[in-house]
């Protein structure tokens, strides 16, 4: 059976919330992507707005699979009632592809950033305290092609079916451009890996720190070696 766009989006958002170490932050991020207020979503769920506020603020932990499913379903139902803006955008992303994407994979089960850093001979440049964070996939991007051919909305393609992934940028000279692009996008990846750096820009590191986004420098000798090593994680 072919899954509908609504089903794919629901699976994506639910998976991100459940696997995240900060459930409330992911809930808030997606609520804002949908342009829905705490009052609107709480009304749909028939609960107090303070419950949503407490989850998003970290005062309530572990919302549970049933609540997450109801929360995500409510986001989609509200969006559908408002002409389906987010659903239409996600539908176009599902169909789209880009020459800038060299490799993309969703792991059957989460792996840690430590594991993927080891695979690419990587060193943490920022937020190494999140080394045990779990991710659900990765995307390898030709950064030059991305800059030349991708618009701001196209950038969302890099996230595949989940933003809980590592974005791996190749042909990077300083690291600043990928971090600036990520800084201005509403959805953030779980981590950024840069490859081919010849003169690391300290601003790239500072941007990663301010976004609380792990930044890893990959030292594999070539893009081919990088991708080959990543494939070893597929089991």
Summarize this, please?
With 235 residues, this protein is of the alpha/beta class.
Question: How would you describe the overall organization of this protein?
Answer:
There is one protein chain. The protein is an alpha/beta fold and 235 residues long. The protein folds into two domains: 5-93, 434 Repressor (Amino-terminal Domain), CATH 1.10.260; 98-234, 3-Layer(aba) Sandwich (Udp-n-acetylmuramoylalanyl-d-glutamate--2,6- Diaminopimelate Ligase, Chain: A, domain 1), CATH 3.40.1390. Helices cover 47% and strands 17% of the residues. The protein has a six-stranded mixed beta sheet with strand order 1-3-4-5-6-2. Strand 3 (134-142), helix 8 (143-149) and strand 4 form a beta-alpha-beta unit. The radius of gyration is 18 Å and the shape is globular. The mean pLDDT is 86.
Task: Give short descriptive properties of this protein.
235 residues, alpha/beta, 434 Repressor (Amino-terminal Domain), Udp-n-acetylmuramoylalanyl-d-glutamate--2,6- Diaminopimelate Ligase, Chain: A, domain 1, 2 domains, six-stranded mixed β-sheet, 47% helix, globular
